[in-house]
Amino acid sequence: MDLKVGEVRLDPNTTKNADGRLFVIGPLRTLRELLEQQWVEHEALKKRGVICPWVFHRNGKRIKIIKHCWDTACKLAGCPGRIPHDLRRAAIRAMVRAGISEHTAMMMSGHKTASVFRRYAIVSTQDLIEAAAKLAAAIGQ
Questions:
Q1: Are 60 and 47 contacting, i.e. CB atoms less than 8 angstroms apart?
Q2: Are 106 and 136 in a shared domain?
Q3: Which of 57, 90, 130, 131 is 20 to 30 A from 64 in CA distance terms?
Q4: Is residue 74 part of a domain?
Q5: Residue 73 covered by a domain
Q6: The pTM is what?
Q7: Percentage of residues in the chain having pLDDT higher than 90
Q8: Using CA atoms, how far apart are residues 36 and 39, in angstroms rounded to an integer?
């Protein structure tokens, strides 16, 4: 993680598909603030002699199971029953709606194939309403 440059690098063999990748934080203020908070915690652990290679951890120890914390967070956010992949799906939909090319979005999300990527790019009723409005504008109606 290089917050000065605004990048998070995932090394090869540390991701689900074993490919490394680069995620540029850019102007994503909320993400930057979260990562900066984690860096402060990382530095505090280091001062106590604890070397922690993970951005997110519990007192310097690797987090292996998140189910209880995840369920609590979803309940507090008013959306119980969500699963972590719901966030991936939401991120991909946001990228598609923002006009990010499929290829670039796949690089950001770590998808290797377009077919799997498209499974996450779910079309909503609102997407269809917006498409109909664009079509009507394009044909002058």
A1: no
A2: yes
A3: 90
A4: no
A5: no
A6: 0.70
A7: 37
A8: 5
Evaluate whether residue 76 is within a structural domain.
no
Q: Which domain holds residue 88?
A: 83-141
Q: What is the pLDDT of residue 32?
A: 92
What are the residue ranges of helices labelled H in the chain? 29-47, 67-76, 84-97, 102-109, 114-120, 125-138
Q: How confident is the model at residue 39 (pLDDT cuts 50, 70, 90)?
A: very high
pLDDT at 91 over 80: yes
- How many independent structural domains does the chain possess? 2
Residues 55 and 1 placed together within one structural domain of the fold: yes
Distances (CA, A) of 59 to 42, 51, 62, 97, 123: 10, 11, 9, 38, 40
Cα distance between residue 138 and residue 130, in whole Å: 12
Do 1 and 59 share a domain, yes or no?
Answer: yes
Classify 9 as helix, strand or coil.
Answer: strand
